[in-house]
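Our consortium's second objective concerns turning raw sequence data into structural hypotheses that experimental partners can test. To show how far this objective has progressed, the report includes one record in full. It was chosen at random from the queue rather than selected for favorable results. The single chain below, 162 residues long, was entered without modification.
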Amino acid sequence: MYPLFAFIRDVSPRLMTFLIAMLPISELRGAIPYALAAGGLKWPEAYLFAVLGNFLPVIPLLLFLERISNWLRRYPMGDRFFTWLFKRTRRKGKLVERFEALGLVLFVAIPLPVTGAWTGCAAAFLFKIPLKLSIPAVAGGILIAGCVVTLASMGVISFWGI
């Protein structure tokens, strides 16, 4: 068996939920359903570990995104990635651009693709929302998204009549 598969098999559901929530694509939209279905966690634990994991990258992203993007833009592949990311974020971030910190809360809170904490941090950087406003705004959005995803995963709410 490959070492990565052995590692994944041996990781506790709490840690796996935390790690999945840290990832930029899945975030807590993937972590909470995993925790409830495959991980066997009860909803309070699923919510807690997913929210904590989703928030962990936020402060480093907000503090260092500009430096990292400037450094990586020196290379063609890095420049293409950040050009794509920032163009997409500007296009999807009209709510943030218009309502600033409140828009950032709502943008992160919507549990859909191209929203969430990672993209919210990019939007905070692009629209120059101060750190003292962007940290609580992203945190508030994570808390709301966690509630929505938890309730949807438990079947309490549904979308599109599903």
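The partners drew two points from this record. The chain is about 75% helix and 0% strand. The mean pLDDT is 91. Both points have been shared with the crystallography group to help prioritize constructs.
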